[in-house]
Design goal:
Helix content: 40-55%
CATH class of the largest domain: Mainly Alpha
Shape: elongated
Distance between the termini: 35 Å
Largest sheet: 4 strands, antiparallel
CATH topology of the largest domain: Multidrug efflux transporter AcrB transmembrane fold
Structural class: alpha+beta
Number of domains: 3
Oligomer: single chain
Radius of gyration: 34 Å
Strand content: 15-25%
CATH architecture of the largest domain: Up-down Bundle
Length: about 425
């Protein structure tokens, strides 16, 4: 079989050269298309289900949220394992799928089961899916540098402007905010006044929720004109909260300000984010979508940040806290330089030892073709270029050259031992 293949190649040299040139061109295109990262992604193929129920203990979360979700998510196709974690006010369920399962197909299957499991959870509790990223998807961290703004204003700027803008970048799965204070209206109730007006905390909560709403009405016609009647009830400032009616006493409305006070405060914090020991900061973590090119996504985020920075208040700028693209580019540049050095040294050694340019060329030309085919296979199996894969290619160059040298020496030996048949008429 091998002999016939060699004979076929020798008879069709032009076809072999065209096939080699085609593989080389295909390999060059594959190098440009292959995702680049610094480290290989060895994380499991998983989908995360997050549920929040603030104020509940871990045992309550476990019994009423985590356990119903875990028990109903079992039986999904291609699931290897399901893990649940309960903590104060939060539940995490990790559904581990087989490696050959498509991540978006897996998320669809989980969503189908969540629609059924929703009825088993407490009223008002809605589980959500985590971002379609992986364990190494945190590719870029940034902070806001704003000396003239307090942490609450910085967090509001991050949540309502910067975050939404960066999430539009292709390849970004999520921008997670951290640090600062999340602003909220806080009602401080006087228990004595509650008792005086015969009210409960639940009555106040229900009325406040109902008071923050627009009410639609019907169309009113007058003088050949039509008017849409509606009640405007959305809260815009602290005074709107104070004037919400929670009950009445002999026809006189009892407002929130009659039973307590309203203040602007921050949500409960379980920790702070400090940068280099210089104080608290506000910023975000860019999570890359599954299977994307990390270097390309980071560069796109940086370009978007330049546009976003134009709309920031005066004196507010971005400060990059972590940028994986620097590690990626340094690693790729180092590997590329070592590959080039290795190829040059191998070429010189092959030419010096063989002293035959055609044999040396046939061996040297195998190096770029083999590297190109390697990237074709990386794309075919959905693998990214990283330090590990590029180092493996660099180490394999010696094996490639060894095979070529062995084949060339064997050909020379066979030619040396071969004697052409004697012409007819000669003995």
């Amino acid at each position: 079989m091998v002999q016939k293949l060699i004979e076929l190649s020798l008879r069709n040299r032009l076809v072999v050269l065209l096939a080699a040139a085609g593989l080389l061109a295909w390999g060059m295109l594959s190098i440009n298309k292959n995702p680049i990262d610094a480290i290989p992604d060895l994380s499991e193929n998983q989908v995360i289900v997050f549920t929040e129920w603030m104020g509940r203990s871990p045992q309550v979360i476990e019994d009423q949220v985590t356990y119903p979700l875990v028990s109903n998510l079992q039986g999904i196709a291609k699931v290897k394992n399901i893990r649940g974690t309960s903590m104060f006010g939060m539940s995490f369920v990790y559904i581990i799928f087989e490696d050959d399962a498509d991540v978006y197909w897996a998320r669809t299957r989980v969503l189908e089961r969540l629609n059924y499991a929703q009825r088993l959870l407490p009223e008002g509790i809605t589980p959500t899916l985590g971002p379609d990223g992986t364990g190494v998807g945190h590719v870029f961290w940034y902070t806001l540098k704003a000396n003239k703004m307090d942490l609450g204003e910085q967090r509001a700027l991050q949540d309502w402007y910067v975050k939404f803008a960066l999430q539009t970048v292709p390849g970004v799965a999520e921008v997670a905010s951290f640090g600062g204070f999340e602003k909220q209206y806080q009602i401080v109730i006087d228990p004595i006044k509650l008792q005086f007006y015969n009210l409960s905390m639940m009555d106040v909560m229900t009325r406040v929720k109902a008071g923050n709403n627009d009410v639609g009405g019907r169309k009113f016609e007058m003088s050949d004109m039509a008017y849409i009647i509606r009640g405007l009830g959305y809260i815009k400032n602290r005074e709107d909260v104070e004037n919400i009616s929670v009950s009445n006493n002999k026809g006189i409305p009892i407002r929130v300000k009659d039973i307590g006070s309203v203040q602007m405060g921050s949500d409960l914090r379980l920790g702070i984010f400090d940068e280099n020991g210089e104080g608290e900061v506000v910023g975000g973590i860019v999570v890359m979508r599954y299977g994307e090119n990390a270097d390309k996504v980071i560069n796109a985020v940086k370009e978007k940040m330049k546009d976003v920075e134009k709309g920031l208040p005066e004196g507010v700028t971005f400060n990059i806290a972590y940028d994986r693209s620097s590690l990626i580019e340094a690693a790729i540049k180092n590997i590329q330089s070592k590959l080039l050095e290795e190829i040059i040294i191998v070429c010189i050694i092959v030419i010096l030892f063989l002293f035959h340019w055609r044999s040396a060329l046939s061996i040297i030309i195998q190096i770029p073709i083999t590297i190109g085919v390697s990237f074709i296979l990386l794309n075919a199996f959905g693998l990214s270029s990283n330090i590990m894969s590029l180092t493996g290619i660099a180490l394999a160059i010696g094996v490639i050259v060894d095979n070529g040298i062995i084949m060339s020496e064997n050909s020379y030996r066979q030619l040396a031992e071969w004697k052409p048949p004697a012409p007819k008429g000669e003995s």
